[in-house]
Amino acid sequence: MELRLESQSSSSAFLEKDGQRKKSPLSGRQGLLLRVIITACALAWVVGRIDGKALLDSLGRASPLAFAMAVLLTAMNLVVGSIRWRILLRAYGAPHLVPLSSLVRLNYVGFFYNTCLPGGVGGDLVRGYASRRAFGEGGLASAGAVVLVDRVLGLVGLLLVVAGTSMTFPLPFAEEHHVMLGASLGIVAGFAAIAGIGAGRSLAPWLPLPLWRIAERLPRIVIPGAFAWAVALSIVTQSVVALTGHLIASSIAPIIRLRDSMVVVPIAMATTFLPFLLSGTGAREEVFVRLYGPLGVSPSDALASSLLVWLSQVVVALIGGLLPAKEIQSRGESHQISLSKDLVEEPSSPASAVKAHR
User: Fold this and answer.
1) How far apart, in whole angstroms, are the C-alpha atoms of residue 163 and residue 242?
2) Nearest alpha-carbon partner for 118 in 12, 9, 40, 271
3) How do residues 58-96 score in pLDDT, each as one tens digit?
């Protein structure tokens, strides 16, 4: 069985109705082209303000050892992230836990899709579909919801690191209170989204029929302790992300302190969640330049740091590009499947669906 991935278009397509797929105005090639243009303009705007020779000099001062350590830490962090994913499956009551080795491989494959291919969510589609059997028959919606929670916890972990560090070691610039406010609002929004997923079954009767079919399959947290461990691991993994960025940035600009990077790097990496950019490119570089600048770091050093952090992630992501995602294939089958169709499987009869919806 072959899983069709259409980059961002797969995530932006609306549910099928009457046999025809309705897409959002920014789906498919038009949406991809728009994101490429926005990303190129954002990156050009940042790079265009930096002296080319100074940038090359900054890149030349980067430590190969620091870069290698950043690659190694990123690779190890994906393994820890896979453990968090498995804990989340347990927290949401998955009756058939996927072997950790499979989750590690899928996490690498997903990291490749999210880092190297347009759209930024292709890897999440792979992970959700490949882990669907953890919830038994018709488990795609539940598995996809767990992957979404995993992604949200990644963002929450980033913001918790930012908030905790900012409260302990405030950065010396005027926007510090904006950083704290933004982090706090993001944390609240993240947990609200997770709570909304847990309340999906309760809200299902009041939703339109296509959404009801999905909401009634959303999982709930059945082991709160396991979920708490997942939150803790999110803080650990995102602290490692900040450390990888610090290793590279401090090798170029030694004046950078670890406590500074624990605020700057997570904010920069949070730009990967922006839907109108490819992997946060452009915005990530601007955050490095703008937030490291008041600390005495030159724009060329900050930009070089951001580019090398991104490159270290690409190196790890390419490993995932070489690994087979065996779970998205079944023996002897070659027909394509529709994610949206699987999510809204018809009940035993149309009448029963309408009756249950009412």
Assistant:
1) 13
2) 9
3) 999 999 999 999 999 999 999 999 999 999 999 999 998
